[in-house]
Amino acid sequence: MTGARVRVIRMLRVREGREADFVAAYQGVLERAVRFPGHVGEQLCRSLDDPGQWLLTSEWESLEAVRQWRTDPDHATLVEPMNACLHDDRWTAAFEVMAMAAGQENRTARRGLTSM
Questions:
Q1: In sequence order, which residues have a C-beta less than 8 Å from that of residue 31 and are 6 or more positions away?
Q2: Could you tell me which of 8, 22, 10 has the C-alpha nearest to residue 82?
Q3: Which candidate, 33, 39, 31, 37, places its Cα nearest to that of 7?
Q4: Which end of the chain has less Cβ packing within 10 Å, N or C?
Q5: Which pTM was predicted?
Q6: DSSP secondary-structure letter at 95?
Q7: Are 8 and 66 in contact (CB under 8 A)?
Q8: Is the backbone of residue 50 left (phi > 0), alpha (psi -120 to 50) or beta?
Q9: Residue 3 pLDDT
Q10: What separation, in Å, do the N-terminal and C-terminal C-alpha atoms of the chain show?
Q11: How confident is the model at residue 88 (pLDDT cuts 50, 70, 90)?
Q12: Collapsing DSSP states into helix, strand and coil, what is residue 11?
């Protein structure tokens, strides 16, 4: 890894009837995450085809920032109310960002990929 940004993706299944609790708990985590060093951005998405399925993505300046967030003493306490709303935490993975596009403008990651 070359110090490129990292995107963490979690596929989740929220318990039926706990959606509002889940979103409220996520807001609590988000309030801390946005102030955490290395945090770039965050998205919470709900499936249009299956309302119980959710996708959480976060972007970080580096893998080290992700590791520091996950091992922060407050992290487990912060995510517990959110995790209590889950039926299933399907999977979590971290990815190196290789290229990005914003609107009409293409931006590339530090790997030196060329825009198409």
A1: none
A2: 22
A3: 39
A4: C
A5: 0.79
A6: E
A7: yes
A8: beta
A9: 67
A10: 23
A11: confident
A12: strand
Those residues with Cβ within 8 angstroms of residue 40's Cβ, 6 or more apart along the chain or in another chain: 5, 58, 59, 60, 61
Span 41-55, mean pLDDT? 95
H or E stretch at 13 = strand 6-14
Q: Which residues of 93-104 are buried (b: 16+ CB within 10 A; e: fewer)?
A: eeebbeeeeeee
What is the per-residue pLDDT for 109?
46
pLDDT of residue 5 exceeding 60, the answer is yes
What are 100's two structure tokens? 């990005």
- Residue 28's alpha-carbon distances to 23, 56, 74, in angstroms, are 9, 14, 12
Helix (H), strand (E) at residue 75: helix 75-83
The DSSP secondary-structure symbol of 61 reads S
Please list the residues that pair with 13 across neighbouring strands: 53, 88
